[in-house]
């Protein structure tokens, strides 16, 4: 057992699949025999579904959500509300002492409003989207020391007390760096990185920066996977030794995982 935690990020697409969630929580049980565990969750599909029920169509640009004031409300309802609570309830079924919170709780994740970006010649204002300015990990450290499993929704707060949507992969990376995690696991529906998304035999067991750049040029790395790999390289740059992209049933063996390397 090490004091350096494992940070696991699970995407929203997996939260509706009972078999995937069962495999995920069983994996977390095994991980906790090695180190304390922090879970960070997304919830984009659920937030989009709720928005559409309200007659609102969110805008996604290169895997990133443009967050209007209405989008921010919806994200709070979906992520910090239903999803976070449901994940805690499910974790407790597997004997995990889960505690649900957002990254804003305790002022853990401090952010600043993202300035407009230029993407493919267009200026995009992402609205209520926060970029990480600093992490204050005392609350998470206190929970981990008490033997709890924090389950964190990706909402940050600025120094004026305003809430922001923050990409869940980015939140997980920032928390992992602040907690000096040994291992950072990005859990996806399809598992590791593939050259051909629909072909499991095209799995890459390792992905370095040169492979990533080639994938961008050739078009088989894009969208959400591009964001995940960018975050994975950020994690390596912040001295997290082990970074993997993998499926929910592969947390322990990592046989079908992609290890991201410099």
UniProtKB/TrEMBL annotation:
Write down the superkingdom of origin.
Answer: Bacteria
The residues that hold substrate are: 43-44, 65, 165
Does the UniProt entry include the keyword Nucleotide-binding?
yes
UniProt-listed GO biological process terms: L-arginine biosynthetic process via ornithine
One GO cellular component term: cytoplasm
Residues annotated as site: Transition state stabilizer? 9, 228
Protein name per Swiss-Prot or TrEMBL: Acetylglutamate kinase
Annotated organism of origin? Rhodothermus profundi
